[in-house]
Amino acid sequence: MTQSVVVQVGQCGNQVGCRFWDLALREHAHVNKKGLYDEALSSFFRNVDTRKSDSRACGVGGRIQHLKARAVLVDMEEGVVNEILQGPLREVFDSTQLLTDVSGSGNNWAVGHMTYGSAYREQIVDKLRKAAEHCDCLQCFFLIHSMGGGTGSGLGTRVLSLLEEEFPEVCRIVTSIYPSAEDDVITSPYNSVLAMRELTEHADCVLPVENQSLVDIVNKIKQMSHSGKPGSVIKRDSAIISGRGGLSGPEKPFDAMNNIVANLLLNITSSARFEGSLNMDLNEIAMNLVPFPRLHYLVPSLTPLYTLADVSVPTRRLDQMFSDAFSKDHQLIRADPKHSLYLACALMVRGNVQVSDLRRNIERLKPSLPFVSWNQEGWKTGLCSVPPVGHSHSLLALANNTCVKPTFMELKERFTKLYRKKAHLHHYLHVEGMEQSFFSEAVDSLSSLIEEYHHLDATKRRLMPDAPRLPIAR
Amino acid sequence: MSVVTVQLGQCGNQVGHELFDVVCADAQDGQRKAYSTASCERFFHQTTHGADLVARAVLVDMEPKVINQSISRAAKSGRWRYGETSHFSQKQGSGNNWANGYCVHGPRHRDMVEELVRREVERCDRLAGLMAMMSVAGGTGSGVGTYVTQCLRDIYPSTFILNHLTWPYGTGEVIVQNYNSVLTLAHLYKLSDAIMVHENDTVHRICSQLLNIKHISFGDVNRVIAHQLGSVLQPALTADSHGVYSRNPLGELVSSLACHPEYKLLSVSTIPQMPSASIAYSTFSWPGLLKHLRQMLISNTKMEEGIDWQVRPTAGSERTSSLTAPSFNTSLANLLILRGKDVYSAETGAFEDPALYTSWLSSQEAFNLWKSPVPFNKYEKSATVVSNSQALLRPLDNIVGKAWNMFASRAYIHQYVKFGISEEDFLDSFTSLEQVISSYSQLC
To answer: What's the domain of life for this entry (chain B) (predicted)?
Structure first.
């Protein structure tokens, strides 16, 4: 069994991370009835006996003593991390896993990346190394951050390149929260584009998430539960936004949205942690979904969003789950994959679903989904037998789809609007180590990424002839 | 006369487990002592104390979940189990990457795996051969499996090695499955004595249309494969075995069917196949069974329903070697295995019809017959044909075609190059398989 380390950077990263740990504990408590520290738990938690003076970790198989998260928390201001340490999750982290400063990054990518990146380089590498040493077999780093601010965006991407330098063989999966168009941080386009370049070059996979989509999903669920229609009562703790059953107390404002992202991470790792008839490990995700090194942006969608309390026909509900995964209301970014081109698609199913159900739905949905000519059957599937809390089955779809192109083009436009006028540029250029070339290189990287997607899009609907086969001397 | 099985990767371990289950139950079922003894000797060894049957198997996987499951399920059955130290696993899988399996994991763990196989082989009084079970779609079964086959070929140059491969569903279980399949088949073709293939699509159809299973799971699919494999490998009386159960099953299988290095692909058809609840209420006759099985063979279907009775053997000169037109399935060689009641009265002349075979072997050389008077796996009468024919030609061509299309755009190639497989290696593999396709196409 492999382990993963979560690195949460910045305010957003830490808030999402906090929800992730809460829901992870809830999930394992649900599954692990005997209180034994098993392989599944060890993928995200260490088991430590705090009574012993050296607090060394206990191996798999014994009783749970004290769970510590395999995490590194980084923030350049103390507010969020302090809140975590005063909340019910404080026992899960120890002080050696935290790195904080007081003044924050001022929503400035350059401050995060250059200033703090250099100042804290040693400490960051040290903490990462410690976390890695606690792992028997480290498979993956999960980086959680936002793109629009200063710390998550700047320092977060600096951490990403450190991860590549120090641990080149460990997979890097980055969950990036992209700002909506109406973001209140004026310089978020600068921060996002500068960060994008780092993501394109140093990440193995990126799961882009847009705040606006999360808001829409939350509203949809709230509408559903308040609509008062008979038979529309949502089962408790089944909603993807619900943190019920976890440790934390009353819900805080962004909790609902952050729970969605936390569930995304739980579902991605489910097949690596729990058993199933067709396992899908984390390294298989990068292998199957990334046909070309730079095109590693995977659009996530989660279904079901909630379970109705009344029992409807099981098979229809199952099929509905598959259909929903491809509807644009369930994507975590504002995009419509059905009308763009699929390069590859992964379906991770949890719960009591058999291979025949999977096949039936793939057959049913295939005709309406345009796939690139050389990957007409580009499906990667995984079946995990353990369902998530509150549901009997669930589906996570990860699509490598050209529908990210409009998102990136919008981002580039917002960037260009500011850059043309050189607005706020001096804040960045004042930072030591920062030069104007960073900006032009970053936007060039984004442009060529958009170009690559564009090329692939152009092949859509065109009947590509099969490549002529190798001739054999008869 | 013992067979040592190496189970590789998730599929290999899951199917292998079902196979041992089937043969153990079948061996302990009837009252025929000679058959039970032969079967147990072939697949199990008995511990010095107690009647514990321990499978002659080595379980290999790069991550531990599946092996743990197989071992505990076997132990729970109470009838047989896996050896306590006969498995090898690592913590992290091969990531569906053939190059990772073949270039990294294989060499890294070579010594351990060889040691485990050596121990199993030494426990055999007499080794009939090795069987490696794996899938071709993933990373471990395909990549590590190919590497292990290569090592075993080096260590045991005169032992028969049979590779049992499971081909994935056409519509993806793994996106790079066609690449992995091409690399595996090209390499195995040079190493293996015979390659026996089951396709998930075909077995799935058997489950849904013949066995009437509504929600088909991988367990169901694997049990059908195990049943078919079991019907081939359980003890039988052969032409050379002189009235006792053959002590050289793999050798006789290989020499009957894989007589030419260009032709090593074997497919399996079994009749009857029905829901287990219906077996007790059905009666079979050898003429009926054999007539259907023969037509299944020549029209290339694996099910006794929906057989195309229009397909007939054509004279050699009229045969087309077209990949698109549904044509008659020419055989190079066939092995017919009959099990059950009144087996000596079964009339098999129709299978010796020279029209079924290519012109360069006589039908006496091309047709082989094994018999066993013991019913297999609850079927009063059952017949299996293992065929070296054009049956796998179209599926193979599809796999190579799709892989080639993907290769033309160089998609995913960087993932393989990262671990040591170059574009040249890909081209070599494609060339080998085009050769195999060409050879089988021209069989007439």
So the answer is: Eukaryota
ipTM: 0.83
Find the range with the poorest average confidence among A78-82, B120-124, B437-441.
Answer: A78-82
Under DSSP, the state recorded for B114 is: H
B-chain residues within 8 Å CB-CB of A283? 92-93, 95, 97
Count each helix (H run) and each strand (E run) in chain A, helices first: 16, 12
Q: Which of A252-261, A434-443, B365-374 has the lowest mean pLDDT?
A: A252-261
d(C-alpha A34, C-alpha B240), whole Å: 58
Average pLDDT over residues A28-38: 83
- From A182's Cα to the closest Cα of chain B, the distance in A is 37
Domain A406-463 top-level CATH class: mainly alpha
Count other Cβ atoms within 10 Å, centred on residue A211.
21
Reported as a single tens digit per residue, the pLDDT across B70-101 is 999 999 988 899 998 999 998 888 889 999 99
Residues of chain A with CATH 3.40.50.1440: 3-245+252-405
Give the per-residue pLDDT at A32.
Answer: 82
Q: Do A375 and B406 touch (CB under 8 A)?
A: yes
* Fold topology of A3-245+252-405: Rossmann fold (3.40.50)
> Where does chain A hold its CATH 1.10.287 domain(s)?
406-463
Q: Is B45 helix (H, G, I), strand (E, B) or coil?
A: strand
Closest partner residue to A287 among B204, B219, B415, by Cβ? B415
Of the residues B13, B61, B65, B434, the best mutation for testing chain A's interface (the one with the most A CB atoms within 10 Å of its CB) is: B65
CB < 8 Å to A139, chain B:
92
Q: How confident is the model at residue A218 (pLDDT cuts 50, 70, 90)?
A: confident
* Cβ–Cβ gap A356/B204 under 8 Å: yes
Q: What does the alpha-carbon distance between residue A293 and residue A291 come to, in Å, rounded to a whole number? A: 7
Contact A469 B63 (CB under 8 A): no
A380 chain-B contacts, CB cut-off 8 A = 96, 172-175
Across A73-93, b (16+ Cβ under 10 Å) vs e yields: bbbbbeebbeebbeeebeebb
Residues of A in contact with B90 (CB under 8 A): 137
Q: Which residues face A371 on adjacent strands?
A: A342
Residues in chain A closer than 8 A to B215 (CB atoms) = 354, 356-357
> What is the rounded average pLDDT of the residues B419-441?
94
* Best of B174, B324, B443 to mutate (most A CBs within 10 Å, chain A): B174
Confidence of residue A253 (pLDDT cuts 50, 70, 90): low
Q: Which of A52-61, B45-54, B156-165 has the lowest mean pLDDT?
A: A52-61
Instruction: State phi, psi for A379 to the nearest 5 degrees.
Output: -110, 135
Cβ distance A354 to B215 less than 8 Å, yes or no, reads yes
Give residues with Cβ within 8 angstroms of A269, minimum separation 6: A4, A43, A44, A282
Q: For residue A299, what pLDDT band results from cuts at 50, 70 and 90?
A: very high
User: Do residues A187 and A239 make contact, with C-beta atoms less than 8 angstroms apart?
Assistant: no
B36, B27 Cβ separation under 8 angstroms: yes
Q: What Å distances lie between residue A283 and A49, A167, A358, A359, CA to CA?
A: 31, 15, 22, 23
Cβ count within 10 A of residue B249:
25
CB A275 within 8 A of CB A313: no
Smallest Cα–Cα separation from B293: which of B339, B256, B326, B238? B339
Burial per residue of A253-283, b for 16 or more beta-carbon CB atoms within 10 angstroms, e otherwise:
ebbbbbbbbbbbbbbbbbbbbbbbbbbbbbb
Kindly state the helix (H) or strand (E) to which residue B5 belongs, with its residue range: strand B2-8
Distance from CA of A338 to the nearest CA of B (A): 19
Alpha carbon A226 to its chain's center: 29
